[in-house]
Amino acid sequence: MDLPPSSFFMFKRFFVAALVLSPMAGAEPPPEFPVLAEFGGNYWVETNQPLPADTQFKVAFDVGDGAEPGKLNYNIHSLARFLNMHVRHGVARDNIQLALVVHGKATKDLLTNAHYQQEFGTDNGSEALIQALLNNNTQVYVCGQSANHYGVTQDKLIDGVQISLSAMTQHALLQQQGYTLNPF
């Protein structure tokens, strides 16, 4: 049985459209950014352990590995993901307290763009993220031992970054204040 030419072309168009659209039919929706609009995209998860509405988080993150020059430090980016993910899943923004403790080579990721450019000849790929975290009540600490080792002084740091005696000291203090240490 032969199809008229117009039927063949309609079938061909339908077939091509089905091939093109079928991968999108089962695709996950794009990530969302409920608090930090430019960082921390995450996916909705139907979990077996829903978070109670009154969940409280006090979480410290430890970052020692620096980013490649000019690139975003994805270890620091984890804080943005944590914040956006939990707000998206029902935790009140005011119930989330985050602290970032930076040491080692990651110390340089806390430099102002001007000082970073002097050091690396390119923009600080993490500066906007650090600013966004600071603007959303994240406490950012740099290890004083690492800062001294790398010649980083307070005037070279992004406004709001605090110098601690050491990363070890800051983690001990945060733990006494009820912060847990996120291993990721």
From TrEMBL:
The keyword Phosphoprotein does not apply. Pfam families: DsrE. InterPro entries: DsrEFH-like (IPR027396), Sulphur_relay_DsrE/F-like (IPR003787). It comes from the Bacteria. Keywords: Signal. SUPFAM superfamilies: DsrEFH-like. Residues 1-27 form the signal peptide. PANTHER family: BLR3518 PROTEIN (PTHR37691). This is Uncharacterized protein.
